[in-house]
Amino acid sequence: MSDPQDTPPAGPGGPRKQAEAMGRRVGGGLSWLMVATVVVKAFSLVNIAVLGILLAEEDFGVFATAIGVAALVNVLRDGGVRRILIQKGMHRYDGLIGPIYAWTLMLNLIAAVVLCALGPVMAWIHGDDQYVMVMVTIGLAAAIYGPGMIYRATLSMQYRYKAVAALNATSALVNYIAMITLAIGGAGPLTFTWAMVVVAAYDWAFGYALTRQPLIRFSPRTRLWPAIWARTRWLILGAMALALLRQGDFLVLGFILDPAMIGIYAFAYMISSQVLTVLAASLQQVLMPTMSSFQHDRTRHSRAVLRVCGSLTLVAAVFSGGIAVVFDPLQELIWGGKWLAAVPAVQALALCFALRLLVAVQESALSSTGRFQTQFQALLIQGIGMVIVAAIGGMLFPRQPHLIAMGVGLWFVVGITGVTAWSLKKAGVPIIDFLVTVLRPWGALTVLAMLVILVDLWLHNLGMRHALESARAGEPSTLDTMLRFVISGFAFTLAAAVLVRFAMPQTLSDMLSITPPRIARLARPILRLRPDRQPESE
Fold first, then answer.
1. How buried is residue 519: exposed, middle or buried, by Cβ count under 10 Å (0-12/13-18/19+)?
2. Which of 331, 193, 346 is nearest to 267 (CA)?
3. Are 423 and 366 a contacting pair, CB within 8 Å?
4. Per residue in 199-230, is it b (16+ CB within 10 Å) or e — as a string?
5. Could you tell me if 167 and 114 are in contact, meaning their C-beta atoms sit under 8 angstroms apart?
6. How many CB atoms lie under 10 A from the CB of residue 342?
């Protein structure tokens, strides 16, 4: 297989021309991935709204407990080979794809067997037979996960970001349609796990349609397996540590809280993270192959990491601040107060989640330079910290999920950010520059969101007091709640736009520098920003 024609060569033209080509590559990739993210966001809102109506707190709790346990086994699903494949590049693709696929298939089947075997054990521990089929379906999804993952890596390596965006968006759409259909059919916690099976099968089929590469035709070359293990052992350990970070709270809380309490926490986590994690995952599919292209140029690599960290934090802080601001009236409008207990937990997690997303940049920056051991060490500290914080919160506040969420959010701010700063220093990123780059936009927008929330609560309580005094006691009308939603959301959006433009013009400019060129050219005059004069830092 030859390199695709749309891959910018590293040939003549000097560092500036190569950097401009790199900027166009990132911008073009982000343009399609931004479209996919918008599509996913729209459908995710519909999906979570329907699931919040049809499923009970206990359904979310059973799934969260099962997925927390399954996360430690699911690290075998790709065995770290995706990053090895991307780092080696297209010139090594034909020689590696066969053994990598065979290695992945073997690990997938091992994971599937272990997960299915855990079903009866989980049912016995929790006294609930639902766990048997929940774990079996998670095992089925693990068994057929590999091909879709490899096809996604192949498309990223070929810089076919339009195809990656199509796969991401349609895969998410299939997931949401499957979950809604299953929830309507009364599947309970199996709503989530059967949807995982459907999505894994879809990714396999659509990935093949996009690449036209039957993976079975490549030779497994088992003599290379020891070398693959030598290269991936740190990645597998890192994936286990990442599993602790992603689902370690579910893992430990599942053995401490009752299903209803962990259900409230899990619902709050889903609300806080679903759109932002899609954004981070999409960005990571661009960053890993792109950063690998200039892994030997430490200065450009460091500048690119800082620019992406600042831009991602800015965008994520705006999104997460908006979620925190409007969720209280929103849950009243959609669910009629059913998830009122989740409001403070959503706000605590959402306000801190922008810093949790820095792990995506950390993974891409370290993997692209081959620092797999450092990546594992960083993820292990972050994951163990997540488990410890959740365990302490669960034991101290078993009936107060919002206090558990506050502890987890504090770990995002202190633990995740601090460890990310330390690990990126190994890749040449100065700690002080990193902290200033991410904490300045996050801190300003978080304080703004908290002020809007406090003002909204004050006005809401003032209105309730006035209603009681005027003998109009009762629940607020739908119109009142809708006005509260619109006013608080508009106030935060307007204030955030003004704050970012006048207090953080450089971060805003950095964000525009990695957006699609057409959007950047239109936005800079409107925002009265100077043209970007440092393409070499992209």
1. middle
2. 346
3. yes
4. bbbbbbebbeebbebebeebebbeebeeebee
5. no
6. 29
pLDDT digit string, tens, across residues 16-72? 444 444 444 554 455 556 566 666 666 777 888 899 999 988 999 999 989 888 887
What is the spatial distance between Cα 31 and Cα 459, in angstroms, rounded to a whole number? 40
Q: Render 117-154 in DSSP notation, one character per residue.
A: HHHHHHHHHHT-THHHHHHHHHHHHHHT-HHHHHHHHH
Instruction: Choose among 233, 269, 236, 238: nearest CA to 68.
Output: 269
Retrieve residue 52's tokens.
């919040």
Q: What is the pTM of this model?
A: 0.79
Host H or E run for residue 105: helix 93-126
Q: What is the largest CA-CA distance in the chain?
A: 82
Structure tokens at 221: 């070359």
Q: Is 55 helix (H, G, I), strand (E, B) or coil?
A: coil
What tens digit of pLDDT does each residue of 430-444 get? 999 999 999 999 999
For the segment 265-322, what is each residue's pLDDT rounded down to a tens digit?
999 998 888 766 666 665 655 555 555 555 556 677 788 788 888 888 888 899 899 9
